[in-house]
Design goal:
Elements (H helix, E strand, L loop, with lengths): L22 H14 L9 E6 L4 H11 L18 E7 L7 H8 L17 H20 L3 E5 L17 E8 L18 H4 L4
Antiparallel strand pairs: 1-2, 2-4, 3-4
Length: about 200
């Protein structure tokens, strides 16, 4: 574990705008991650929208969305949204499940992710699987000398900013090269609780 690349993770705020990872590399890492990450009943109840270097308009809309949450103080520091590649994770109706699931449904089994009226309500499995996807993709990125960041402060729905995105919003992940002109600064006042507060051995 001492040489695990995840130990080098930094939440990058500023990404270079003059240098971008090759699209084929990003596609390869995403595909590798997709093939690696498990999914309950292999339904994959989430969708990933990928915005690349040429999608500035979409990134500007996402940035605006981060500043319009229903909170007392709107953020103005989510510049990681302008990374070379931004992956937006949303809900997804599994309306074309695999044959095994179809057969189970005929026998009376119910799958919320396949139900038009329930797939947005039942988020537990989606969030778990997105977490696994991001963890594995982060590991792959760091192993390829790519920098990453996450954005969780997005409203549940962004149709007013991006009409084409009608699904619920879960998370955004940014990938690119860190801007050395705005170096990462570790906040010494932010730290995890002691592990004894988190892990209970029974």
């Amino acid at each position: 574990m001492k040489n695990n690349s995840m130990l080098n993770f930094k939440q990058i705020r500023y990404f270079r705008q003059d240098k971008h990872p090759e699209e084929e590399i990003i596609k390869s890492l995403i595909t590798e991650t997709y093939n690696l990450v498990p999914s309950k009943q292999k339904l994959v109840p989430y969708k990933i929208h990928v915005f690349g270097p040429n999608n500035l308009k979409e990134k500007e809309a996402l940035y605006l969305a981060t500043k319009n949450r229903n909170v007392k103080v709107n953020t103005n520091v989510n510049y990681q949204i302008f990374a070379s590649y931004v992956l937006l994770f949303t809900s997804r109706l599994c309306d074309n499940p695999n044959e095994e699931v179809k057969n189970s449904m005929k026998r009376g089994h119910r799958y919320n992710s396949c139900n038009l009226n329930k797939y947005k309500i039942s988020k537990t499995i989606s969030n778990i699987e997105i977490g696994m996807f991001c963890s594995n993709l982060s590991y792959a990125c760091l192993n390829n000398n790519l920098d990453i960041a996450y954005t969780g402060c997005l409203p549940p729905n962004i149709k007013q900013f991006m009409p084409k995105i009608e699904e619920d919003i879960y998370l955004a992940m940014s990938i690119g090269y860190a801007d050395d002109g705005n170096p990462y600064r570790k906040n010494g006042k932010q730290y995890k609780p002691d592990i004894k507060e988190i892990i209970d051995w029974h």
